[in-house]
Structure formats: C-alpha cells, structure tokens
Specification:
Layout lengths: L2 E2 L29 E7 L6 H20 L8 E7 L4 H13 L5 E4 L3 H13 L3 E4 L7 E3 L2 E3 L8 H12 L2 E7 L2 H16 L3 E8 L7 H10 L3 E5 L6 H9 L8 E3 L7 H4 L2 H4 L3 E4 L8 H14 L8 H20 L4 H9 L3 E4 L2 E6 L4 E12 L2 E11 L2 H4 L11 E3 L12
Parallel strand pairs: 2-3, 2-4, 4-5, 5-7, 8-9, 8-10, 10-11, 11-12
Antiparallel strand pairs: 1-13, 6-17, 12-15, 13-14, 14-15, 15-16
Helix pairs in contact: 1-11, 2-3, 4-5, 11-12
Length: 417
C-alpha cells in the first residue's frame, strides 16, 4: 500500500499508532501520545455494523504502529460503545473532546449518530471522520466522510437492476434520515431512467414483522424491490420474504444488504440473487485486498468477521488521517485539515481512495455484485466515482465556514428532487 497526494513527496515520516483503549503499548511514553476517539456501536441493534468496524480500526492501528509510528509518538485509541443510542454518542463525543482532548474522533453509523456528534465536535474544534456509507449532503470543513454516497452506488444499482428486471420499483426503507433520503435518490434515479416507484414504505429500526408490507408489495406487482433497510431487526424482512415464496416472484436489490454481514446470517436459499453496489466487497480479487485479508485474519483468527465496506472505510479512514498527520508534521487540527485538502490519497484494499477538497468526501472505485451461496460475485466495476450528489450543494473551497447537512430535510429542500 502507498499513500500519495498531488504535488507532494511520496513517502512521509512514519509514526506509531497503538490499538489499546485506553492503555498504550509502545516505545514512547503515554503522556506523549496522540489520541483518537473511536465511537462505534459494539452492542445494541447496530452492533452488526460496529463490530467489524472496530476490528478493522484495530488492525490499521497495529500496522501503523509496527511501521514505526506517527511523528515518533504513539496514538492512544480510546474506544467508546455507542450502544446504538444517540444519547451515548453525544455523551461520548463531549467526553472525547473535553476530558480526553483527543486529536480526532472517528465515529458514527447512523445519520442520527453522526448528526448528534458533528455539532459537538465542531464546537470543540475536534476533527471528525465519518466512515460509513450514507445519504450524502454533509458539508462541513471539520468533517471528512469516507463512506460511499448515493451518486456513487445507488445511481449504478437502480438503472442496472431496472434494465435487468423491469421499470416498476417498490422501496422498503428504514424510518430515519438515511432511509428517507436514500429512498428519494432511488425514486429520482428510477425516474431518470424511465422507471417509476409504485410504492415506498418506511419502518422503525425495531420492526420485525413485515407480513403486512409483503402483502402490499404483492398487490402493487412491482418488477423489483429495492431495500434500504437497516439493522439487526430488519433482517427479518429477508427471511419473511423468502418464507412467503416471494424470491421466485419478485427479485430484489439493496443499498445496505451485506454491510451488516446479513448474507452470512441467512441461508443461500434466502439470500441468493440479491444485487448490491458498494465501494468494497471482501471478494475483490486484487493483490492488495488478498494481502489485507491475510493480515486481518491473522490478527482476529477464526472469529474474524466478513469485511464489508463499513469496516474497510474505518481501516482506510484511520490511515488517511494518520497520513495527513505525517504530511502536516503535527496532529493539530487545521494543519491536518489542510493536508487532507491537498488531495491526499491512499491505496488500500478497496483501491485508491482520494479526498475531494471541495466536499471532504472521497473519490473511490465502486463495485456492483450479485449474491450466490453467501458470496458476492462482482458484475461491474466503476473506477474513480466522485461524490456527485454532495458536489451539487457543497463547496468548501469557496465557503470554508459552511457546516450544513444539506439533505437533512430531503432532496426537495435542497432543490434536487
């Protein structure tokens, strides 16, 4: 793996990152540590996403530590369990920024958790990385978003599946920002490509009974279903869909299936045929990815989880920040932000990820895949996809003081729908 940025030297000084939380193991003294707060859901309904992300962060930290460190100093990773609660996210973000005075926070899975911590970290001028795929639209100089956005993935998924199965789309989605706004994008992309949404339904994260919805879908007679469901409870939808005999009648695609490793919780009969699009899949055949997986399994053993986009973005997000620290020669917030804005890039397991200075999102490769026998087979690859959705509303070069979530009230409010 290599790290580069435009118009700058390729190799930078090495440093030390340690994966202990909060203890430090290494050559430098603990009082000389650079600190990172990691707030992720290790319990609650969203732990299916959080645990692989934590494991990936630990590996990145170990590797950078083994390579010599950050500016000759260790980095203390301080882990907090968000417990799938925005209240805990707010509490821990405040604690990380004030009591621990961390140099960066890497945190959040849901949009609600992100929006709970973002203003707190902005107030305390603590740099924030959000490493989860999401609905797009965050425009904040203090924030870097490494997860894929709908223009990078959903815009590929919708036309591909409509061309394959038909133009009438039914959407089932989680009842919060991600579900609502991503559903707006699904509807927009369907219309842009000559299709229509014949139904859109939203479900709270704790809903497990989807029988009435399945009946509605049968009555609507769509050509395909697109799932924007989230969390452990919503896995019930896929099982109930298969049990009702619907898999053979109406095919399905998803913007989220697999990033919680749902495909391993279900049988092949329940999951086969699902089509997805992400910035990373464990099945990528590149030499860099195979080498990464060898290291990941060596560290985490037989219990190592499937590595999904959320996990790999956590791994690459920590590396991007660490390389910016080395490039800046300091862990201070503004020099690190400026280093990231220089066009810093990292060659990781997913391919090359490069910071877009205008939006603070990443340019990335995208992979469209189909599930068969609990494994994803790559169907299409789309190199260097920009965050074109957020680019419509965000220009941090022209407006560096912006700190807005433009899609908070939907695409229509942002003048897009």
């Amino acid at each position: 793996m290599t790290v580069t940025r435009r118009n700058f030297l390729r190799g930078t000084a090495a440093g030390t990152i340690l994966a202990a939380a909060p203890a430090i193991v290494g050559r430098a003294r603990a009082d000389d540590a650079i600190k990172a707060g990691i707030i992720l859901d290790q319990s609650g309904g969203l732990d299916i996403y959080g645990q692989p992300m934590v494991d990936a962060v630990r590996l990145a930290a170990k590797e950078i530590n083994d390579d010599g460190g950050l500016l000759g100093r260790p980095l203390e990773l301080i882990f907090y369990d968000g417990q799938s609660s925005t209240q805990f996210y707010s509490q821990y973000a405040t604690e990380a920024a004030t009591r621990e005075q961390v140099d960066v926070v890497q945190a959040g899975i849901t949009s609600a958790s992100r929006e709970a911590v973002r203003p707190i970290l902005g107030r305390y001028q603590t740099l924030y990385f959000y490493n989860t795929q999401y609905e797009g639209g965050v425009c904040d100089r203090n924030v870097f978003c490494t997860g894929s956005t709908p223009a990078q993935t959903v815009q590929k998924l919708v036309p591909y599946t409509m061309n394959k199965w038909g133009k009438k789309v039914y959407v089932v989605a989680a009842d919060y920002n991600y579900g609502h706004i991503t559903s707006d994008w699904v509807v927009k992309y369907a219309r842009d490509h000559g299709g229509e949404a014949v139904g859109v339904e939203y479900f709270p994260l704790d809903v497990t009974d989807f029988g009435p919805s399945i009946n509605k879908i049968q009555a609507a007679k769509p050509d395909l279903v697109i799932s924007v469901l989230v969390g452990g409870a919503h896995v019930s939808f896929y099982r109930q869909w298969a049990a009702a005999g619907m898999k053979s009648e109406i095919p399905m695609a998803s913007t989220t299936f697999g990033v919680g490793n749902e495909h391993l919780l279900m049988s092949a009969e329940e999951g086969d045929g699902m089509i997805v699009a992400y910035g990373y899949l464990e099945e990528l055949g590149s030499a860099a990815n195979k080498a990464f997986l060898d290291r990941f399994h060596a560290m985490h053993g037989d219990d190592a989880p499937y590595v999904n986009e959320l996990a790999i973005r956590s791994y690459e997000g920590l590396y991007l920040w660490a390389e910016a620290v080395k490039l800046a020669g300091t862990a201070e917030r503004m020099p690190v932000i400026e280093a990231l804005e220089s066009g810093l890039a990292f060659d990781g397991p997913s391919g090359r990820v490069e910071i877009d200075p205008k939006t603070h999102h990443i340019v990335q490769d995208v992979y469209l895949a189909e599930l068969k026998d609990q494994q994803f087979s790559i169907l299409e690859t789309y190199p260097r996809q920009p965050p074109a959705d957020t680019d419509l509303v965000c220009d941090l070069i022209a407006n560096p003081n912006d700190a807005t979530f433009y899609f908070e009230n939907g695409l229509e409010a942002a003048g897009i729908k």
